[in-house]
Amino acid sequence: MIRLDGVGQVFDGREGRVTALEKIDLHVRGGEFVTLIGRSGCGKSTLLRLIAGLLPPTSGSVAVADEPVTGPRRDVSFMFQRPALLPWRSVLSNVMLPVEIDKGSDRSKAAYRDRAHQLLELVGLQGFERRLPHELSGGMQQRVSLCRSLIRDPQVMLMDEPFSALDALTRTELSEELQRIKMELSTTIVFVTHSIEEAVVLADRVVVLTPRPGRMRDVVDIDIPRPRSLAQNAYVTEVATISARLHALLSEKESEDRR
């Protein structure tokens, strides 16, 4: 579903050139859940922007569904760290926003409205359709943002630390919600997080990036049955073992760089 071959990204600034990513070779299968972890500034968000077509790579190639990425695609959605809801629009109107922007859809607005109601029910927001964002908690706002990302039934969802600003309990609830939605819809997800435990609980594979310039340090398979939970996990020993391995990978690379 996603192919990055030899991808590199360099930014030119007033103080010189910065190499954000270097020699990234990553292939993500359809329906797979991949998390990206690494130190701040290692290029995780840049990698998502490249897949989304928001940024052209300096070197290498990016493809989605066997098509070169040359700009934003209708079948790829992007969910940010903050909900970024329009404060004057209702919950339902915020979910419908991508449909209103995209004039080339082959589905009727009524069909998308039905879909929006289904998604809001899926995330437990049935009955909140007419509420404004300020009337919702942070977790509820992020659920609206999740519905907005899903409204056009994307093949690929890109998620840039979407739960990092939430309290621990809400974060746990939304991680479980996301897994449930993923299992129902079979959407391909690439998810950026700073939490190693969250990466293990959510992912089929965890990609570890080195400090800048970001390179692929390792890819770790997570062979733990679903559903998984940040709060209560029947496979807590397995989660702890893999988390310790990921911590070691990050620390090992940091030690190598200091040498």
List the helices and strands and how they pair.
Blueprint: E1 2-13, E2 16-28, E3 33-37, H1 44-52, E4 59-64, E5 67-68, E6 76-79, H2 91-101, H3 109-122, H4 138-150, E7 156-160, H5 168-185, E8 188-192, H6 196-202, E9 205-209, E10 216-221, H7 236-258
Helix pairs in contact: 2-3, 2-4, 6-7
- Overall helicity: 25-40%
Distance between the termini: 38 Å
CATH C-level name of the largest domain: Alpha Beta
Shape: globular
- Elements, N to C (H/E): EEEHEEEHHHEHEHEEH
* Beta-strand fraction estimate: 15-25%
In CATH terms, what is the fold-level topology of the largest domain? Rossmann fold
Radius of gyration: 19 Å
Protein name: NitT/TauT family transport system ATP-binding protein
InterPro entries: AAA+_ATPase, ABC_transporter-like_ATP-bd, ABC_transporter-like_CS, ABC_transporter_ATP-bind, P-loop_NTPase
Pfam families: ABC_tran
Keywords: ATP-binding, Nucleotide-binding, Transport
3D architecture notes:
By secondary structure, the chain is an alpha/beta fold. It has 2 domains: 1-75 and 158-185 and 200-227 and 237-258, P-loop containing nucleotide triphosphate hydrolases (Rossmann fold, 3-Layer(aba) Sandwich); 81-154, no CATH class. The chain is 37% helix and 24% strand. It contains 7 helices and 10 strands. It has helices at 44-52, 91-101, 109-122, 138-150, 168-185, 196-202, 236-258, and strands at residues 2-13, 16-28, 33-37, 59-64, 67-68, 76-79, 156-160, 188-192, 205-209, 216-221. The strands form 2 sheets. Strands 6-7-8-3-9-10 form a 6-stranded mixed sheet, sandwiched between helices. Strands 2-1-4-5 form a 4-stranded antiparallel sheet. Helix 2 (91-101) packs parallel to helix 4. The chain is globular and about 50 Å long. The model is unreliable at 253-259 (pLDDT under 50). It comes from Kribbella pratensis. GO terms for molecular function: ATP binding; ATP hydrolysis activity. Residues 2-236 form the ABC transporter domain. Pfam families: ABC_tran. Keywords: ATP-binding, Nucleotide-binding, Transport.
